[in-house]
Amino acid sequence: MPNDVDLAMDPRFYLVLHRIDRELAEETRAKGCPFCGGALHYATYRRAPRGGPEDLLE
Ligand SMILES: [Zn+2]
Question: Can you give the residue range of the structural domain that contains 1?
Answer without folding.
Answer: 1-45
